[in-house]
């Protein structure tokens, strides 16, 4: 057919509210109105800026049909809003008086040849106002699921006929509008899918357990970050590997399997494994959840060992406590039952005092050891520490200044900080230094040095305490961490045999290492290593 030229006539005027002589016939609501409105809202088209995709179509419709007005009209709950408009100044009009509210009820193009002769519209403001609408043709616009959200419509100021060819053309243009709406729906669906996948990926990556997705052959398709850390390799390396090489058995649905996982370097770790079938893309996949129980079992072993040590501590403690208590009781009874001269009485009181002091020290250290042993790392208050400052505080805290003067401090240059409990580390250093001073000659020096040192590829700080004392045999070095054990060569040295036991507990809780190098008569060197934090070098 031959296209009509756009007429230079005045555009459709805004409706005058006072023009209506009678109430218009309001279009009934579609049966699926609630769902239709939800689809419209989900498209996020209402009250949005002009869109060139739709504006091109309305301009083309106005030119092809030679009309003054062409609209892409969206039917909201109480209004019709124009996503695109040619020849219409209003962005919206009430739904109750609209042509398009009727048009969306039609399966095909709705044509009103002369609105003045149609009882549904004859008394509406748009028909009764200045430059009134006489002609209307509208074709429904359907979303992808078939809900009619609006129309592509044309309006004119004069009545006119609308032949079958023109109906087909308007229907085709409305189909193009529908395609654009479908493209928007597709984009929204793709964005929702992207967000959903992102949410699932974020969820998987925040799970503490490793998750492997297997295809129907048992090969790894994907995994989460926990699995990468657990097996020691990125997903790109794990992909396509048979899962059996990592979990130790051919994968099949199982609620719980107590076994082991194999890392990329070949090392094993205890694991609880759960496998479930999962349909995906029309095929059956397997989802494997791997829970690393090595820390749990290590904690169980720690608790078992702690309970055993605690039993041994207090079994031995009953003997250690009995000795000073018996001494206090015996000498106090002598003072009560007999009269002594002043010098002898003072000597006996001095013995009682020494034994009471020893008893209090023993009880305090036993309680301290019990707190460390039972509380574990939860009783620590770690912070980023400069060990040079901790060493200086330990030195200043020594009560015997003559003994403190024997220390040769070698703090070294700037070193990495360690993440540790300052009071506990100071206590550990104090115990080591006290032993070095006690078991070496009064005029000898004790050297304390700090240096950078790595263990198993981990950077850290090494504190070494070296004395020139009596030293230890290999057998004594094996016993030095046992509770209440003391070197027997110097019986006059004060102590209760818990100092190095406490040192080892403190160092273990911090993930550190304590080592002793000693030979009889050649002195001892105790090295305390702590891992460095990521905070960089201390200033």
Describe the structure.
The chain is an alpha+beta fold and 539 residues long. A hairpin with a 5-residue loop joins strand 9 and strand 10. Helix 2 packs antiparallel against helix 5 and helix 10 packs parallel to helix 15.
What characteristics describe this protein?
539 residues, 15 helices, alpha+beta, seven-stranded mixed β-sheet, disordered N terminus, single chain, six-stranded antiparallel β-sheet
Shape: elongated
**Overall strand count:** 18
Our measurement of the CA-to-CA distance between the termini, rounded to an integer number of angstroms, reads 87 Å
Protein structure class: alpha+beta
| Biggest beta sheet attributes | 7 strands, mixed
Which segments are poorly predicted (pLDDT under 50) over 5 or more consecutive residues? 1-10, 16-21
The total of helices stands at 15
* Radius of gyration over all CA atoms, rounded: 45 Å
* Helical residue percent band: 40-55%
Strand content: 15-25%
Mean pLDDT across residues: 84
């Amino acid at each position: 057919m031959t296209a009509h030229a756009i007429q230079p006539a005045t555009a459709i005027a805004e409706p005058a509210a006072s023009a209506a002589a009678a109430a218009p016939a309001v279009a009934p609501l579609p049966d699926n109105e609630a769902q239709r409105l939800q689809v419209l809202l989900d498209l996020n088209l209402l009250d949005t800026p002009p869109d060139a995709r739709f504006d091109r179509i309305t301009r083309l419709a106005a030119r092809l049909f030679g009309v003054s007005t062409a609209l892409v009209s969206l039917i909201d709950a109480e209004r019709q809003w124009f996503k695109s408009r040619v020849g219409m100044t209003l962005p919206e009009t009430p739904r109750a008086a609209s042509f398009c509210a009727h048009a969306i009820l039609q399966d095909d193009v709705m044509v009103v040849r002369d609105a003045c002769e149609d009882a549904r519209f004859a008394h509406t403001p748009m028909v009764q106002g200045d430059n009134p609408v006489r002609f209307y043709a509208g074709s429904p616009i359907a979303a992808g699921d078939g809900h009619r959200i609006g129309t592509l419509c044309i309006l004119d100021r004069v009545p006119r006929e609308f032949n079958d060819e023109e109906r087909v053309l308007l229907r085709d243009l409305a189909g193009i509008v529908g395609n654009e709406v479908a493209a928007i729906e597709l984009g929204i669906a793709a964005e929702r899918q992207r967000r959903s996948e992102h949410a699932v990926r974020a969820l998987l990556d925040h799970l503490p357990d490793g998750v492997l997705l297997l295809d129907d052959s048992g090969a790894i398709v994907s995994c989460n970050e926990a699995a990468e850390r657990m097996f020691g390799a990125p997903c790109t390396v794990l992909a396509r590997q048979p899962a059996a090489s990592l979990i130790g058995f051919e994968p099949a649905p199982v609620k719980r399997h107590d076994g082991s996982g194999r890392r990329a370097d070949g090392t094993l770790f205890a694991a609880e494994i759960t496998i479930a079938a999962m349909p995906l893309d029309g095929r059956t996949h397997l989802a494997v959840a791997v829970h690393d129980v090595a820390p749990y079992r290590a904690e169980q072993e720690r608790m078992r060992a702690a309970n055993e040590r605690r039993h041994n501590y207090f079994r031995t403690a009953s003997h250690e406590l009995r000795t000073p208590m018996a001494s206090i009781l015996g000498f106090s009874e002598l003072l009560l039952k007999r009269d002594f001269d002043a010098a002898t009485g003072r000597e006996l009181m001095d013995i009682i005092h020494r034994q009471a002091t020893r008893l209090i020290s023993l009880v305090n250290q036993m309680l301290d050891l019990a707190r460390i042993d039972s509380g574990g790392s939860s009783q620590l208050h770690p912070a980023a520490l400069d060990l040079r400052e901790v060493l200086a505080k330990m030195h200043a805290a020594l009560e015997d200044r003559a003994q403190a003067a024997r220390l040769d401090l070698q703090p070294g240059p700037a070193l990495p900080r360690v993440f540790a409990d300052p009071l506990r580390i100071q206590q550990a250093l104090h115990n080591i230094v006290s032993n070095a001073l006690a078991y070496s000659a009064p005029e000898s020096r004790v050297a304390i040095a700090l240096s950078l040192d790595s263990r198993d590829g981990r950077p850290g700080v090494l504190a070494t305490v070296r004395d020139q004392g009596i030293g230890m045999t290999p057998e004594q070095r094996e016993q030095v961490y046992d509770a209440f054990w003391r070197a027997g060569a110097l019986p006059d040295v004060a102590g209760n045999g818990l100092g190095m036991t406490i040192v080892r507990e403190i160092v273990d809780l911090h993930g550190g290492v304590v080592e002793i190098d000693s030979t009889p008569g050649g002195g001892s060197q105790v090295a305390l290593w702590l891992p460095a934090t990521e905070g960089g070098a201390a200033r």
